[in-house]
Amino acid sequence: MIHILSAKQFDRAELEYLMKRAQEMDTIFQSGGTDMLHHQILATLFYEPSTRTRLSFETAMLRLGGQIISETDVTFSSQSKGEILADTTRIIAGYADIIAIRSKNVGDARIASEFSSVPVINAWDGSGEHPTQALLDLYTIMKDFPEVLNDAPLRVTFVGDLRYGRTVHSLSLLLRNFPNISLRFISPDILALPEEYRMQNDFQDEALTDEILTTSDVIYMTRVQKERFPDVESYNAVKDRFLFDGKTVAKMQEKAILMHPLPRVNEIALEIDTLPQARYFEQAKNGVPMRMALIAYCLGK
Amino acid sequence: MIHILSAKQFDRAELEYLMKRAQEMDTIFQSGGTDMLHHQILATLFYEPSTRTRLSFETAMLRLGGQIISETDVTFSSQSKGEILADTTRIIAGYADIIAIRSKNVGDARIASEFSSVPVINAWDGSGEHPTQALLDLYTIMKDFPEVLNDAPLRVTFVGDLRYGRTVHSLSLLLRNFPNISLRFISPDILALPEEYRMQNDFQDEALTDEILTTSDVIYMTRVQKERFPDVESYNAVKDRFLFDGKTVAKMQEKAILMHPLPRVNEIALEIDTLPQARYFEQAKNGVPMRMALIAYCLGK
Amino acid sequence: MIHILSAKQFDRAELEYLMKRAQEMDTIFQSGGTDMLHHQILATLFYEPSTRTRLSFETAMLRLGGQIISETDVTFSSQSKGEILADTTRIIAGYADIIAIRSKNVGDARIASEFSSVPVINAWDGSGEHPTQALLDLYTIMKDFPEVLNDAPLRVTFVGDLRYGRTVHSLSLLLRNFPNISLRFISPDILALPEEYRMQNDFQDEALTDEILTTSDVIYMTRVQKERFPDVESYNAVKDRFLFDGKTVAKMQEKAILMHPLPRVNEIALEIDTLPQARYFEQAKNGVPMRMALIAYCLGK
Question: A120 to chain C, minimum CA–CA distance in Å?
């Protein structure tokens, strides 16, 4: 049975297949939907709230002609958690054809998959993986740069909090499947990418220079949060380096794109929204066809 | 694109069209539903809880053959609210075909409509507008008095808290489109209709007299809440004037109707429920065909 | 109009009919679903949370081709409760074709049924009835022992907290319709079955002996909760008598089944889950076809 648990589970061939399916699903999505999954049910178990991720999954299932059952109670007891999760999963797997689960406990999605008689999709488990976000991020890049599938070179720069930003970790893992995509990581030292995600050729620095801005095809921005710093001074020392406004974006190539997993606070100024490089709202929307592709894939359609 | 934001946006022709559509939708509703909106999705974003309004919208969409995604989290951050609402709207508009939004902040529905790529329906925004309630109220009146569309005269009396009762404000605006409908406003002085909603010929008084009761075609009752008064004495002085029981209703004409936006507390005695004038439960039910008509209208169907 | 309010409402013929319908629905469920209830809506009003019961009802309706509107707000005011419940029911009955209601107030489902213009199903009302659980329990027994419908003998043993365990009460009522089913009740004295549910021939004891284990066709286990005892000592004195592990189950006949309404805590060891007698997850799953049968029955299908 196919579960979607980690960005690590995909090889190049599988990624190419999923990108192609997402593209097909995009056409279906743009035209409304299909009845492909008529009579099938997706259970969304969100023990950690996330409106946009949950609604993205639910939209995907509805556009495929399926139906939804949903639980969003965040008071799910943490006591004797392991056992309860196993039992809940077995029961819900008796109702639904596929389960999307979100939990703040690392590994919960994998536990659920071990006890489930139907496919399980990890919709984020704590500081762990967020594979469906990584896949929709990859799909967003592929829509603008389809030649990457034929190994054209591409420069992707991650900016901001690369230490705690799980979407950066998962996406960087996926991009490693494309040898001509070069990765650059720009962050304050204390928010640098963890060792386990780095490779020898990666460029890494603290400064978001004009050189970086002008030579990147993709800039993947994340938020630098004050609470990650030991004191206000060290935060103040770097915070302005990681804000994007119209002037910053003006330095980017015209065909380059600016991505962000959202929600943003002030790291991307509103004035950017209408610039041609802004891609974060399309990115969010791309979650629907990508998740349509994943649900269909898991269900063998 | 058509948004439903305010009772002020409708002219007479549009109201007549919507009443006709609601009537057609009523026939569909009574017979179960239609597949007219197959593959279309309504997002209900209720940042202020309201079971009956939300379920009325959702029922309307389901009876049209569409589907629902829903968010009812009331902890929606109020900090940096404007930005978050704009971003959330843009993202949800990427998922759904139409959005119904409820918020306690006046103007939120309009802000959402400015950032949305799909139609937005205002399901109440704070002390502001509640246009879909006003339309279902109008539809309820039209069902009993269809000759009003041909400018037959009608006497509508509003009773109770006319100062804070938003449904009274919105409905009175709609009724101004029918020159032969005369409006009367009965309330304690401190709960009188705000100046902006009054017109020169309106009758206004503090006493719900037998003369009023016997000559009204429609009585629209609202609740007088103790907390609106400066002290208990002033509340006690008026409260009994604004309670309806069997004896009050007996004074109404047989073909007259008694409306109430619900929920009630004690201002309408249970004994009235079975009397021929009671129309408040039908009124609530009329929300379904009226909202079916509005959703179809916004979606160009 | 047919409402499902109490296990007491069913006679033998009706139970046999419902078991047969559940079996037919099981076939439909296993193959995905049907469009039998296209355009029909189930309202799930859960004023007391219960993920698995609510999702079981919703799955049942979706598998029948119907749709769902749902309210799970547990802050439903208890003040002037009676009136609000009556009004809410009348309004929701104007939207939906059938209502499933759960409340912690005994009798709420019956009150709702009195004010509803559509069928009402009691999804548990406080310490009162839980008729749909009793029916799915009966269906689970019938799947393993279909000859019971032809009055073959069967020995059913209830174990644990028989005083507060409402599922035991409701199921025992249903089993009384089958004269050759003998019931045995094993519990600590202070958790014994209330007088009103007992019959003269019932076996009742405090000890779960090997004799009981080896001669039962069905063991229906429930949890013994510490807080039901006057002091820790009296709890400690009995608690180990009412735990099942692999060794306990090994004493059961091979064709016997072990049931539990779930959730469990530690009264059934995880090692049992894979044994042939374990039936509690199938039992939970059986809620779907049983509730499909009940919804169809109420709607005259």
Answer: 17
